[in-house]
Each structure stands twice: as structure tokens, then as C-alpha cells.
Design goal:
With 397 residues, this protein is an alpha/beta fold. It is built from 13 helices and 14 strands. The protein starts with 8 loop residues before the first strand and ends in an 11-residue tail after the last helix. The structure holds pyridoxal-5'-phosphate.
Amino acid sequence: MTYRSGRHFLQIPGPTNVPDRVLRAIDAPTMDHRGPEFGVLGKTVLEGLKPVFKTKNPVIIFPASGTGAWEAALVNTLSPGDKVLMVETGHFASLWQEMAGRLGLTVDFVPGDWRHGVDPALIEAKLKEDKGHTIKAVCAVHNETSTGVTSRIGLIRKAIDAAGHPALYLVDTISSLGSIDYRHDEWGVDVTVAGSQKGLMLPPGLSFNAISDKAIAASKKAGLQKSYWDWAPMLTANEKGYFPYTPATNLLYGLKEALDMLLEEGLDNVFARHDRHAEATRRAVRGWGLEILAKNPEEYSSALTAVLLPDGHNADALRKVILEKFDMSLGQGLGKVSGKVFRIGHLGDFNDLALAGTLSGVEMGLKLAGVPIQGSGVSEALDYLGEANTGATNAAA
Ligand SMILES: *Cc1c(COP(=O)(O)O)cnc(C)c1O
């Protein structure tokens, strides 16, 4: 590879662009993870995560990708044969339910069209039917990164309550935490699963479980096998800021910096920024005359937008042109929508001009790849971005 000047545009919906401040924080000597300084760092990040999840309860940090935290959520709370209720919102919901099946759980996986989020009314009806309370957990993906659809986690909570059902509520926020409003305590979530490489602006390698008192109580009786993922030794060691095995020390330096940055900007401002960039992106897509995969405006994702290509055009061919000509990576279509959609990531460390550059690359790429477009989506987006900051909100609640 010869040198390509300028920054690569990493506009996939995770891993996201890592800000310079975070890169510099990581670039420091690794310290003794059992020494006195480490406990201070450990306590700082373990406490600092709580406001981001909007919880007063512990948040556990694993040196792992998000998939590890999925497994931890299941094996700490459930027993072999337990029934879990999940909805096929897209690729990530499908992978999580496959994992649940492999772990020995019985999954009621409700089919979906990959264009809608979890329907709260469906959850209420399913739980009301379950008079014997055989369903032990409801699992939902907050932001389906494969489709750009956000499920309404607060409304699903209300549906569980309306059914008067005691099931645990497990939520994947791997691509929403730090980008889209999320409230672990207020929404009565029992385990929130998250990862470092999306809204938290870190490299891949850390993942998280925020846990309720009910989840901790369930973990004392859960019968699935676990060792590495066991919360109990984590919670004990974390009390003093330490870990039962070697943590990803340098990523924790980065986490400390990223948490500072989110607080400096203010979480509400971070969410409003994501909403605004998402709205500008949708205006661009409509300006091109293309279709957004998400069907329900109340479920539009503020973290990414998945765009359908017209029949006869391959989204991966388009992505290849854009990568080669403009040095920009866009998200590929995953699973059932492979080749049919491309995904524009507009989450993490991002601003108006980075979005303008991203959309310009897409528009030029569409023309070069011979995809027919109606008009300039970029100019629609720029008109919107150039208006006073409207603080438009489209986040699903
Ligand atoms: C990225 C992602 C995952 C997988 O996380 P890994 O870090 O790749 O293991 C799971 N769920 C969602 C919603 C994601 O966006």
C-alpha cells in the first residue's frame, strides 16, 4: 500500500473514529494492575461509567468485544432450558438469539422484517399469554446496527409492566450508548450490554454489563456454566478498583478520557448532535431519491442510516468504488440485507463538516457507480446543517 494523504473516513457504524485525545491517553506506559495507582484509575472509570448508563448500580467492565458482554448477560442471570423472548429486528438480534440457543436456553424468536424495532404491544401480548411465567427474560437490541432501527426501550418496559410479568429485561446498547438517550435505571433494565468501539469512541476491546439489583439476585441462582464471565469475583475486586484478572489497562486510560469528553460536551448535547446528523443524513438520502431501510420515523436511528439501493444495483460494488476513490469505509449490508443496503455511520466523534464530507463521498460514489439519483442529497443536508442548530430530536424513547 502506498501512502494516502489525509485521514481515512471510517464511517462504518463501529468501530468509530477514535479522537486524538483518546489516542494520546492510551499512548502511555502500561501500569501494574495490582499496584496502588491502578485502584485509583479503576475506581474512576467504574464510577464514571454510571452516569453514561444512567444508573446508580455497578457497571462491570470485561476485556472483550461486545459479544462477550452478551454472553455475560445471559450466563449470569439464566439457567439451562430457561425460556427467553427475542424479536428478529436484524442481524445482531439474530446473532444474540443464536448464542442463547447454543448456551442451552430456549428461545422464542419472533420473526421480523428487518425494517422495524421491537413492537411493545407484541411483548405485552406474549407476556400476558405466558400465565405460568415460563419466560425468564426479554432481550432487545436498542439500536439494530444492521438496519438503523432503534427500539423503544422505555415503552417495552411499560409493556412488561402492563403484563405484570416478572421476566428479566436484557438490553444490547452496543451501538447506542453515548449516542442515543438511554436510561438503565429509569427504564428498569436488568442487564445493559455495551461495547467500547461505537458511541464511546474507543478502540474495540472493552465491553460492559450494567446490572440491576434484580439481576444480581438472579445471578445468585443462575445455573448456566460460567467462569471468565462471572460477575461475582468482578464485583468483589471492583469494590477497591481492581479486577480478578488482567484488565485492558491502556484501554481504561482511553475510557477515562472518553468519559471526560462526553461529560464536557454534556450527554444531552451529544444526543442532540447525533439526532441532528441523522436528520441531515436522511434529508440527503431523500434528496438522492433513495429509500431509508427503517420504516417507522419514531424508530429512526440517530447513530447510523441504512440506505436501500434500487433493484439491479449492488451496495457492495458502490462501497468498493467509494473506498477506492475517496478512501472512505461505509458499513456493508449484513445477513439478510447483504448487498442490498449500505450503512452510513454518523456516531461517535463527529461534526458537521465530517458529515458533509461523508455525504459528498457517497454522492460522488453513487454517480461513479452508475446508481441513478434524483438530485443532490448533499445540498439538502447542507441546507439543514446550515440552519441554526435546531436541536431536532428523533431519538426513540
Ligand atoms: C457491534 C455490535 C455487536 C457486536 O459487538 P462486537 O464488539 O463486534 O462483539 C452486537 N450488537 C450490536 C447492536 C452491535 O452494534
